[in-house]
Amino acid sequence: MDYNFTAIEQRWQQQWKADCLYKVSNKSDKPKYYVLDMFPYPSGAGLHVGHPLGYIASDIYSRYKRLQGFNVLHPMGFDAYGLPAEQYAIQTGQHPEVTTNKNIARYKEQLGKIGFCYDWDREVRTCSPDYYKWTQWTFRRMFLSYYDNKLQKAQPIDNLVRHFEAEGSANLDVAQSEELGFTAADWQAMGDKERQQVLMNYRLAYLAYTKVNWCPALGTVLANDEVSEGLSVRGGHPVEQRVMRQWSLRVSAYAQRLLDGLETIDWTESLKDTQRNWIGRSEGAEMLFPVKANETVVEGMNLKIFTTRADTVFGVTFMVLAPESEYVKQVVTSEHAAEVEEYLAWVRRRTERERISDRKVTGVFTGSYAVNPLSKAEIPIYISDYVLAGYGTGAIMAVPAHDSRDYAFARHFSLPVIPLIEGADVSEQSFDAKEGVMMNSGFLNGMQVKEAIAAMKRYIEEQGIGRVRVNYRLRDAIFSRQRYWGEPFPVYYKDDMPYMIPEQCLPLCLPEVDKFLPTETGEPPLGNAQLWAWNEAEKKVVDKSMIDNQTVFPLELCTMPGFAGSSAYYLRYMDPHNDEALVSGEANAYWQQVDLYLGGSEHATGHLIYSRFWNKFLFDLGLVCKDEPFAKLINQGMIQGRSNFVYRVIGTNKYVSLGLKDQYEVQPIHVDVNIVQNDVLDTDKFRCWMPEYNDAEFILEDGKYICGWAIEKMSKSMFNVVNPDDMVERYGADTLRLYEMFLGPLEMSKPWDTNGIDGVHRFLRKLWNMYETVTDDAPTAAELKSLHKLIKKVTWDIENFSFNTSIPAFMIAQSELQQCRKRAVLEPLSVLIAPFAPHLAEEMWHRCGNHTSVCDASWPVLEERYLVEDTVKYPVQFNGKVRFTIELAKDMPREEVERVVLASDDTARYLAGNQPKKVIVVPGRIVNIVC
RNA sequence: GCCGCGAUGGUGGAAUCGGUAGACACGAAGGACUUAAAAUCCUUUGGCCCGAAACGGCUGUGUGGGUUCAAGUCCCACUCGCGGUACCA
Fold first, then answer.
1. Which residue approaches B14 most closely, CA to C1'?
2. CA nearest A12: which of A854, A839, A847?
3. Longest Cα separation, chain A
4. DSSP letter string over A590-615?
5. Interface ipTM
6. pLDDT at site A728
7. Pairing mode, strands A71-73 and A533-535
8. What does the pLDDT look like over A706-737, one tens digit per residue?
9. Which residues of chain A have pLDDT under 50?
10. pLDDT score at A753
11. Helix axes A733-742, A724-731, angle to 10 degrees
């Protein structure tokens, strides 16, 4: 009987669908378990063989958990908004919705063939109005909230208004863009617009002029995590800095909670570290440096700086301001104004990329001086682009002896360097380490650096010249995108101030446009929409020709970024059809949070920060019961491509095999991996592959053409893309699933190499053949041992996500049980393999005489008694005396015992000399040695 | 620069708690079946040495040290590769 995988797989996929086998209920007596994959962006290229890796792993785990008796939620959906669909629309005029839907259909078809146990009734799409209604809803709530630092919680903005009415900005400990000072009377005197401007300083979703990463090629701003080395992550286009009026989310308010939360979740240390670095907490002090003008100290004018090295104040020999700093205007003297302006213009001209690649020391003197509050020395104030406006206060105290950047600057401008640590040689470079004994530092002399930092912090607080402070590197997330294909903001503008569309009017649907490019006047694409104005009185969208700024107002033209839709999708799966709430209290109380989340580590500083932030906000609202969204997270590695090469002899149409290429002058050329098997080129197919190769000639070795190979990214241009559909067609879904797991550890990146898939396929065929006849005979001890060994191994492996080592265990069991046709063995075996090869398992399970689905079976119970070794105890002599007893597997001949134990003289001596110790020497053969 | 991860045969990888390194699979070589091929099955397969053979010996997990009766595994120093981050004061 042949293993007809195509027939088997089609049959069971249809059966599962007909039985609604994977439909999940929110009501169950079973314990719940929530397994989630990072949902894909449906690109036009379809899935390649690397995409399903994580999905297969999560599917195995889901099926295992179900067999263990859990009610398992394992959904799938699509992150459907994004740049590629829009870029394609700009080029072809096709509506992004059309191409997106087409791509989703293709993805679902491909995923369907692999046999995942998704409950498709719970599918979500971020671009569907009944989904993005809740994205808009949450944004609206963020606008209506501020963050209370004392309560460590988001609060309704109305509370803040009451505070202002009562005492103005006094006694306020809240997250804010800048510190404002006003009284209750001031507040009362403000008009509506002015009050709105004040509130904007505190809202969790706020509109402000911010320095943004502007990408001219994409025509939009990008978040920090969407930019790498001055280029956009998508497309690799140059990015420049610009100040624009943008929506932002006050993620920074949650910095400490995002940091603390990491301690409570089961993620890999490396991922947590990446997030810790990104949040970048640093403890230090803020200090005030008085400014001098015309040789006298200006009353009330101070430069506020942030430092983590308060101990080094005595070594401050100059100050540096960021070019964009507010202080610049205040301190530049008229004699230096021209020079400074020239420098600032030069800085503005430089692109982010130039700044990164060309890191020479630049700067300009402002003409003003500050006073070192401790040494009382007069120190010059400079401007330089090595100081960043966005971090700390945008101004620093420079300590050239103990900071390498300040050192480089001091050397360039011939500024004094005062060493502060005994024994530190600063003649060639700075001494940056936080260790050693202080000198030249007044009352700090003789202290260790760490003591000195603490002492100085105490001193500056006592003297009122500064305060202890914690800074975070984490910035607020820029939330506006000048694009069409994204969630519209539920926002309209009245007198240039934003207002939210009422909750009951959501969703605010994305309007039709006739062009996807920005308007001629540079407005985002939504500026092309006719039906895009808000009638405040009638609470509905109307034609924009009706805008009168009395009752009809313009709507926001930007859309939300990609991470908006992906920040809470895991909640929506719990209750996907609810139109009253993002998720009902009951559904959330049942499913709680994601128990296991699988996805790539490339989302460490993007999606995985944003969705933690988003979830914490919803937690503060009381909408969700868990502070963290993902209890456990596993990063699957990337699957790289394995490219093949042929070697063309330069100037000819001759191709030389790998082993002989050194004898010619050759040029390597990528060749489609689908016409190469085990690195042997199919020369006929090669000739047909492209017209230019029709009359190719080959220089063979041993009658074969051997190709070279390299590991590269899987991409069309490298001709190394392997399509899962082809694999399913040739080998079946079960083989593909097993082989993807067999390839190596889940978390490691590895190249896809189709060589080797035959071995896995052969194993499944052999396994299948064991089920041709099934008898009711009683199994032997050896058969039960093989079975239970396998139960133990596979259970351990799945729980530890070590799927790659399970497959060899199955292969060994299969060869040990080759002759076994007994139901008592074959039936549990079919359950064990069900998570890995669900279609074949169903077939095996039914061959054992069952009429239900194997998915509703129970995971086999391990019985240790079948594993107990058959052992014999031997006395072992050493130096003529019986020194210890050794317990050995029965099948080991006695004469080998002493040889094994005494193989190492030192070990034997050790065993003889150390009395009552139990040492496991060799599991399986020598069971243990008992003294 | 800083943080994290990794390095084991021709290849992918195994060794889960410090206890036979190289499981399992691929590839390769040889053999069986076959008119032949495919498929299937069997044998061998880290390197080196002794030997007719059996048996055996030495060596071996990126490099150099160390701890231990025993190290791929633990410690110290280094080399290379991958990923993240980068004037964060």
1. A805
2. A839
3. 109
4. HH-SBSEEEE-GGGTTTHHHHHHHHH
5. 0.94
6. 95
7. unpaired
8. 888 777 788 888 888 899 999 999 999 999 99
9. 876-884, 894-904, 914-931
10. 87
11. 110
Considering only CA atoms, name the residue closest to the C1' of nucleotide B89. Answer: A307
C-alpha A746/C-alpha A53 separation (Å) is 8
Q: Where are the beta strands (DSSP E) in A32-99?
A: 32-37, 71-73
**Distance from C-alpha of A569 to C-alpha of A128, rounded to nearest angstrom:** 12
Q: Which bases of chain B are contacted by protein, using any atom under 7 A from a CB?
A: 3-5, 11-16, 19-20, 23-28, 40-41, 69-70, 82-89
Q: Which nucleotide is nearest to A805 (CA to C1')?
A: B14
Rounded CA–C1' distance between A800 and B58, in angstroms: 39
Query: Tell me: the pLDDT tens digits for A177-197?
Result: 988 999 999 999 999 999 999
**Token pair of A901, please?**
């134990």
**Terminal-residue alpha carbon distance, chain A:** 56
CA A458/CA A467 separation, integer angstroms? 9
What's the rounded Cα separation, in Å, for the pair A520 and A517?
Answer: 9
Angstrom distance (rounded) from CA A142 to CA A205 = 5
Following CA atoms A733, A738, A744, A748 in sequence, which dihedral angle do they give, to the nearest 10 degrees? 50
In degrees, to the nearest 5, what angle opens at C-alpha A802 toward C-alphas A799 and A808? Answer: 120
* Residue A706 exposed, middle or buried by CB count within 10 Å (0-12, 13-18, 19+): buried
Asked if A212 contacts A478 with a C-beta cutoff of 8 angstroms, the reply is yes
pLDDT of residue A188: 96
Distance CA A300, CA A518 (A): 47
The H or E element spanning position A459 is helix A449-463
What is the reported pTM?
A: 0.92
**The pLDDT of residue A641:** 85
Extract the tokens encoding A20: 């609604």
8 Å CB contact between A905 and A928 = no
A924 CA from B57 C1′ (Å): 26
A740 CA, B23 C1': separation in Å? 19
Picking from A813, A760, A741, A811, the residue whose alpha carbon sits closest to that of residue A784 is: A813
> Which nucleotide is the nearest neighbour of A306, by CA and C1'?
B89
A399 φ/ψ sector (left φ>0, alpha ψ -120 to 50, else beta): beta
